[in-house]
Amino acid sequence: MDAIRVTVRRGGVVEATHRVHAATTDGAGWGDPELRFYLRSSAKPIQAIPFVDAYDDLDDDEIAIACASHRAEPAQLAAVRKVLARAGATADDLENGLQEGRPDGKLGHNCSGKHAGMLAACRANGWPLHPYRDAGHPLQQRIAELIGGTGTAIDGCGVPTFPTTLRDAAVLLTRTPPRIREAMRARPELVGASSDAVDTDLMRLRDGWIAKIGAEGLFCAAHEDGRGVALKVEDGAQRAIGPALAEVLGIDELREAPLRNSLGETVGSIA
């Protein structure tokens, strides 16, 4: 099938159209199933495995925040601090750098939970804390084994990221261990945000699903029954994912999103 077209309307005028490619593990596809890109933050539930494997007493919030692309909401920052305390580390140890417009320095970076989990994994395994983001570090070598990737690049937060195809990305989160799946479903608001986050929305709207967005318009999800799905917006626009996901999974609640101005007024639609 052709790529999904998501249209942005302001008033009666079409202002933009986004093409979305999608693939599922049962063989359905829209657009190019061999489209190549990097996994980016959609890999976080897999990158969290060394952290979760290292401890048998983790709370749901610690695991969920290690899988998160968070928005620096109070509960999210509290969860990052909790993981840092477990690691015997501070925000100064985080190697994710700063993110413009975010509070609390490196702690406010949307990947700080993942980085805190990496520090805790290093602490538990007796690996050097720094430079834990280096591709040659034992932690990153373990993650590369788990993902099975080659030809790495560097993600926006400084750690290695791996190339994939849309077809293979649909399988990615089906490999998420039960304990991580359980925590993401228990605390979906930590994984994305308390509102207006499509991965959080899917986990709230439909039983059995876990989901994780990635940069440049990527979205991966998996159901507990073994189904997987991946979507990639061709131009990287995250706002197209919800309506496209509605087309793929038949989720009417996501089929149309409001287009709002800076006053919070609805001035159009994304559908």
List the helices and strands and how they pair.
Blueprint: E1 4-10, E2 13-24, E3 29-30, E4 36-38, H1 44-47, H2 49-53, H3 60-66, H4 74-87, H5 112-125, H6 138-147, E5 153-154, E6 160-161, E7 163-165, H7 166-172, H8 178-186, H9 188-191, H10 198-205, E8 209-214, E9 218-223, E10 228-233, H11 241-249, E11 257-260, E12 266-270
Antiparallel strand pairs: 1-2, 1-12, 2-3, 2-10, 4-7, 5-6, 8-9, 9-10, 11-12
Structure characterization notes:
The model has no long low-confidence stretch (mean pLDDT 97). The chain is an alpha+beta fold and 271 residues long. It contains eleven helices and twelve strands. 34% of the residues lie in helices and 21% in strands. Helix 4 runs parallel beside helix 5.
Q: List the secondary-structure elements in sequence, H or E.
A: EEEEHHHHHHEEEHHHHEEEHEE
Radius of gyration: 18 Å
Distance between the termini: 18 Å
- Quickly count the helices: 11
CATH architecture: 3-Layer(aba) Sandwich
Structural class: alpha+beta
Shape: globular
User: What portion of residues belong to β-strands?
Assistant: 15-25%
Stretches where pLDDT falls below 50 for ≥5 residues? Answer: none
Short characterization:
It is built from eleven helices and twelve strands. With 271 residues, the protein is of the alpha+beta class. The two termini are 18 Å apart.
Features:
271 residues; alpha+beta; Beta-lactamase; two-stranded antiparallel sheet; 34% helix; 21% strand
